[in-house]
């Protein structure tokens, strides 16, 4: 939920909500304002009566209660790739679009932040190339942690992707946790971007401040 001057004057409430292809827009709003956006399930698809789960529906409404959101292993089986504790702004989105945004005004700002990375049906070599590109561009230099959402790869491909992730983040000096059910999956948990979050690994847990005032 975005609280602009016009909203505070009671002229309306605007919510910028979505995921994947909308990554550019979410980062543009983050870069050029202090507004909060939401990375979460689509009304027309993920919240469709035929496919939505109780958890997806529940997480949608939880985002507007003003309470912090806790994501731990009760929601999905989390895997720790690098241990530690980190606290900072939650940012990020689709890996392909985050990579394509490098060098543009819409490049994700990860300084003192915890980036969220998600993808869908990408080949293992592409995941490796994009992560390496982000690393060489300095995206991971000053992060406080990394969370990896559902990558929606075929089982065999995911096994290879998991090896890439383990090797890539093996020596990370910040916490890295994977298998958050965020984006292309059911349940699909929504999260606010641009708010403070804390990532721990003992146990694996992500606590996110509310996106509304």
UniProtKB/TrEMBL annotation:
Regions annotated as coiled coil: none
SUPFAM superfamilies xrefs: Class I glutamine amidotransferase-like (SSF52317), LD-carboxypeptidase A C-terminal domain-like (SSF141986)
One of the GO biological process terms: proteolysis
Superkingdom classification of source: Bacteria
Pfam families from the UniProt entry: Peptidase_S66C
Domain LD-carboxypeptidase C-terminal: 87-199
The UniProt record lists the keyword Hydrolase: yes
Gene3D superfamilies noted in UniProt: Class I glutamine amidotransferase-like (3.40.50.10740), LD-carboxypeptidase A C-terminal domain-like (3.50.30.60)
GO molecular function ontology, one term from the record: serine-type peptidase activity
InterPro entries linked to this entry: Carboxypeptidase_A_C_sf, Class_I_gatase-like, LdcA_N, Peptidase_S66C, S66_fam
Keyword Transmembrane helix: no
Keywords: Carboxypeptidase, Hydrolase, Protease, Serine protease
Similarity field: Belongs to the peptidase S66 family.
PANTHER family, sorted: MURAMOYLTETRAPEPTIDE CARBOXYPEPTIDASE, MUREIN TETRAPEPTIDE CARBOXYPEPTIDASE
UniProt protein name: LD-carboxypeptidase
